[in-house]
Specification:
Layout lengths: L1 E4 L7 H6 L6 E4 L12 H6 L2 E4 L7 H4 L7 E4 L9 H6 L3 E3 L6 H16 L2 H9 L17 E5 L3 H12 L3 E5 L7 H4 L1 E2 L2 H7 L2 E4 L13 H6 L4 E5 L8 H10 L2 E6 L5 H4 L2 E4 L2 E4 H12 L4 E3 L8 H19 L9
Parallel strand pairs: 1-2, 1-3, 3-4, 4-5, 6-7, 6-9, 7-8, 9-10, 10-11, 11-14
Antiparallel strand pairs: 12-13
Length: 332
């Protein structure tokens, strides 16, 4: 099987050096796949499989160029960067990674919480400018905080477990039921979580139902001085509303690890009947970046050696299963 593997990273080389995939003819490409990507005629005619991260944007125009494409393996849980409707019409299978990096993401989210509540960003920036103002860095103890976790899958549950070790109270508003969830934290109505949480952390997938689940109305219900953490998807928060509430002082700080593909592409996405222009988000993001109480990182919460190996191993196993007629982690 001829496989084009896009978004190839330096950190992935060791995995392929350690493992042999003789049943695949792999061509590694560091660039993302998009409408601007230049490919040879032989690649377009003979490629059967493609593997990408979310930084690749697989529109109908991109996919139509491939004459014999049968399967797309995204090295991510999310698949909103792939035109599923086109794939279904043309019998192109789409495979994803159902769960990965739960502990890595949970640890990273707690790291963002600590960095915000202990004012680490302004302290580091001041040190670089050779100035110190201890009053400016006065932080807050976590054992007096309530964390509200929106979505309690495997990542959300680990956040609840970790926060308990810090002596924090935890609320959960979950879109799916988990056994023994009440043992880890208090399941509450969504509005209760918004009103009573000191820290709100989003750990749920992006769907048409969860698009901007945190918007102007939700910010109005929150207490003054709340912290917002999002390691999931940029589409879950109305960034303009977030910026406004930070400027007003309603939101005391935000940790966002969500802008890998959307911040760099300038692409316009259709979400249900709504359209989100990421060009607008870029302007908002520039203002958020300049805020001392906002931390933005490029979707790296999962990014550990162990997690990358797991993602690659699962991706290649998904493709091997597809060859055998087994639909492992098949989206469509």
């Amino acid at each position: 099987m001829k496989l084009l593997l896009f978004d190839f990273r330096e950190s992935e080389k060791e995995f392929f050096e350690r493992n042999s995939f003789c049943d695949f003819d792999i061509n590694f490409k560091e660039e993302s796949l998009s409408e601007k990507t230049r490919l040879g005629e032989e690649e377009l005619d003979n490629t059967v499989a493609i593997s990408v991260y979310r930084s690749s944007i697989l529109t109908e125009k991109v996919l139509k160029r491939f004459k014999n494409l049968r399967v797309i393996a995204t090295r991510s849980y999310g698949f909103s960067h792939i035109d599923l409707e086109y794939c279904m019409k043309n019998r192109i299978a789409v495979l994803n990674i159902e769960q990965y990096g739960e502990m890595a993401v949970a640890e990273y989210a707690m790291g963002l919480i600590i960095a915000l509540t202990r004012k680490i960003k302004p302290a580091v920036l001041d040190i670089l400018e050779h100035k110190v103002n201890p009053k400016k860095y006065e932080g807050e103890l976590l054992n007096k905080k309530t964390i509200g976790i929106i979505g309690c899958g495997k990542v959300g549950k680990k956040i609840a477990q970790i926060s308990k070790l810090f002596g924090m109270n935890s609320f959960v508003s979950s879109y799916k039921e988990l056994p023994k969830l009440d043992v880890e934290c208090n399941v509450v109505p969504f509005d209760t979580l918004l009103r009573e949480s000191d820290i709100i952390a989003l750990h749920m997938p992006f769907t048409t139902e969860t698009y901007q689940i945190i918007g102007r109305e939700e910010f109005e219900k929150m207490k003054k001085g709340v912290y917002i953490i999002n390691t999931s998807s940029v589409e879950l928060i109305d960034l303009q509303a977030l910026l406004e509430n930070i400027e007003l002082g309603k939101v005391k700080g935000a940790g966002l690890d969500i802008l890998e593909s959307d911040y760099t592409t300038g692409k316009v996405k259709d979400v249900g009947n709504e359209t989100m222009s990421t060009k607008l988000n870029q302007k908002v993001t520039e203002k958020l970046l300049s805020s001392p109480n906002v931390i933005i990182t490029p979707h790296i919460a999962y990014n550990t050696v162990d997690t990358i190996d797991y993602v690659l191993e699962t991706t290649m196993n998904n493709l091997r299963d597809f060859l055998k007629g087994i639909n492992s982690n098949r989206v469509c």
